[in-house]
Amino acid sequence: MRITDTAVSLVVPDPEASARFLVDHYGFTEAMSAPGFASLTRDDAGVHVVYLAPGLETMPPEQRDVLAQGLILAFVVDDLEGELARLQSEGVEITMPLTVEEWGERAFQTRDPNGVVVQLVDWNGPGETMAG
């Protein structure tokens, strides 16, 4: 098997609202869209984010109404404090303040209009590197 691309697909009540949140605040662009569907991309993200409305007939029946819950869209960034300041200046609610974990991860979180957690993270705390 050779993987050529990656996407995460999330079923949310309002795909357009979630898509707009990533476009407006996280620099994604809309690659494709249709009623109840939005596919977002970003050259440096390494993953496409797809939002789907509940009940889409293209989904298997047992998956059609299962909403995205308990997951985190996490993006590693170069300037965590700069991104935090930018999002705050844009009026985005920070739902988890900047937190430093004992293993070196630093992160903060926001939520999109459908409640999907979007986390920005780095491994570059003072004196820290990815290897620790």
Automatic annotation (TrEMBL):
<protein>
    <submittedName>
        <fullName>VOC family protein</fullName>
    </submittedName>
</protein>
<dbReference type="Pfam" id="PF00903">
    <property type="entry name" value="Glyoxalase"/>
</dbReference>
<dbReference type="InterPro" id="IPR029068">
    <property type="entry name" value="Glyas_Bleomycin-R_OHBP_Dase"/>
</dbReference>
<feature type="domain" description="Glyoxalase/fosfomycin resistance/dioxygenase">
    <location>
        <begin position="8"/>
        <end position="120"/>
    </location>
</feature>
<dbReference type="InterPro" id="IPR004360">
    <property type="entry name" value="Glyas_Fos-R_dOase_dom"/>
</dbReference>
